Amino acid sequence: MITVTNLTKRYGTVTALDNVSFIAQPGLVTGFLGPNGAGKSTLMRCAVGLTRPTAGEVTVLGRPYAAISNPAAHVGILLDASAQHAGRTGREVLALGALAMGIDKHRVDDVLDLVGLTTKEAKMRVGQYSLGMRQRLGIGHALLGNPEVLILDEPANGLDPHGIHWMRGLLRGFADRGGTVLLSSHLLHEVQQVADRIVMIGLGRIVADGSIQELLSEGQDLEQMFLERTMSTSREGYAA
Questions:
Q1: What Rg, from alpha-carbon coordinates, does the chain have?
Q2: pTM confidence score
């Protein structure tokens, strides 16, 4: 479970997150949907301790991320696939992750197979990878410790249609086994295909939160709702 409570983040006079609250439940894929600059990445960075909030908090599995022992073994994270070390091979990236987590090195082969990176691709340096291959490697790193929670920022970025279909199935299976998934995207169609619940954010504020059925019951097309609610929030005092 991920619990976001009254989360606010200001950079000087600019407010990136404004009193944001929602819960991502176990067994569900929660789609965190908003246009670029809405505050999605800021919230995820707060969730994993990379950015300190101005007020409020995020707890993961009932505790702040920093208070979890060996957190990478419990919480899988993908924030920026391009941040992987370009000079290491894909296998080395995963092997170092396994070493840091204290897990069996044989898990690396399982993960490479799971994310569809071949033996040849695993021996390539990450600097030679396409964006889609980096995304697969990043998702693999997030899954390395058999976590209970996944926090993924735009994981479909760079994936081809086959890769997107694969990712949807992977996340659906993870949630169906009781895992918690928080998935951010700026693409409504992509979120709608996999999410059980959608949290819409516009310019740092939550503008809708509910299951797809609950949101549709409001009598408004989801695309229309997304465009109207995320773009109608006052821009005064907000950052991209």
A1: 18
A2: 0.89
